[in-house]
Amino acid sequence: MTFVLDPTLAPVADIGDPGPDVDTLQGKRVGFRRDILWRSWDWVSDEWARLAQTDGAEVRFWRAKGRTGDEGDAMLKELDEFVAGIDIAVVGLANCGSCTSWTIHDALRAASTGIPTAAVCTDHFKDLASTLARRGGRSALRRHILPYPLDTLPEAEVRDIACAHYRSFLRTLGL
Amino acid sequence: MTSPVPTIDRSCGPSGCEVDWLTSERHQVADDVASFTAWAAERGWGDGLPLVPPTEGRVRAFLANCGRFPDEVVAALPPLQGECTVEKIAVNAVMAGTTPAAMPLIIAAIEAMARPEFNLAALNATTGSVVPAVIVNGPARDDLDIAYEVGCLGGAGGGAPAIGRAIRLVMRNLAGQLAGVTSQSVFGTPGRLAGIVFGEWEEVSPWAPLAQRRGVTGNAVTVYGAMGTTNICDMIADNGRSLLEYVGKGLAYHGANGTLPSSAFCEAFVAFNPVWAKMIAAEYPRMEDVQQVLWEAASLPVSSFPAGYDESLVGDRRIGDRMYIAQSPGDVLVAVCGGMGNLHALSMPSWGDTKSVTAGFQ
Fold it and tell me: What φ, ψ does residue B168 adopt, rounded to 5°?
């Protein structure tokens, strides 16, 4: 027998708090973070924004683009500015490996400012989203799960799904 | 000038130091490869190949030769984001079966991959079949027996496979890249086992070494997000212009990274065999001109895409009615390696908006 050294690392410390609940949409600035990948998320966030406005919210959008080099630095600055101007962050879409990574990254960055934040995932990538949230140090990050596959569905069907999910999405935010 | 090599030997153990610098948890196991491999596999440490038990003695030997303190944090590798120390890298390098002399190269490659522009968090999680390739320049190629001649990307043997495997074990055990858990790679790639590590045949290249063209002389690694390797064969071209155009066209295909709207930035990589490199350089002694011809050829007509794609073919890679696979000629990386058998170029399609990184090492 001999002694060997463990080749792995312990997980980083975890924050088990999902952050504050949303108490009302009335007068709140809801920010939707979009990306350049998923048209379905544009359609879903369109519908949720429309319904949130009906519930008295002001909605804002920001689209993440390239994440490397100078453009990547600019994205982080833009994200921070976007988050600074909203009361509630809705970050999507976790619908592939790399985009789930950035969705959770951006959601954690928003949540760290103390505002109610939800990451939006499709069903196939929900486990990855949970894992990355835990490994990012906030396992309790709010996540709303949409069906999968989503992006291959017709636009009208995706918009119907968005409307059907709106109330449960609000519950995800604690409302 | 201060020496980069520490004057304190921190590889010493409790009996030799007031403080034991090695902080990894110890496990008591049988000291044979088969038993340890089975035991490690149960813990998710393994890649399916036999593992060398990382005993204290072996790990200390690696640390004694790398010129870095064991507790130095090299990077926080995503998705785990824990502190990846020199000690932990050494433990994984031992398991991979590489040599202590490879530690500086391995550390340099990991540091390069951890740079923000490499986008490792996304790369390690993606559905794509990507692995960071490591192209080596400088005397270390020979010192570490890293192949750059015939069969250099696989089959030549030498030190590269174990070095590549060490980096892959770091990604598994320290970054936490696990298939089906954090990595969503639909197919994976053989390169995720022993990496893609090869040298440039600088001695026969008509151009300056890749790393030198990127600002680093001497020993250096260039890490590149590779979606595997693709062969480009030609038996017709009898001049540099035709050959470059033909290879350039071979870089562009539907579904290539550069054709995807999700990739805000794209690169391409081409390796020329020495025979072709000589023929090309006779007409194009300047690398910038080689890249220009390759880039101009590496595009697809928008009309060749199926209906419904047109509105997605946007951004600065669309110029007029053509879609280019990279933003600019300088984003086409070129190296010289491989056998003298001619006939083939090698392409490594890029992944996502990862930007390649070059870093030097001692």
Answer: -65, -40
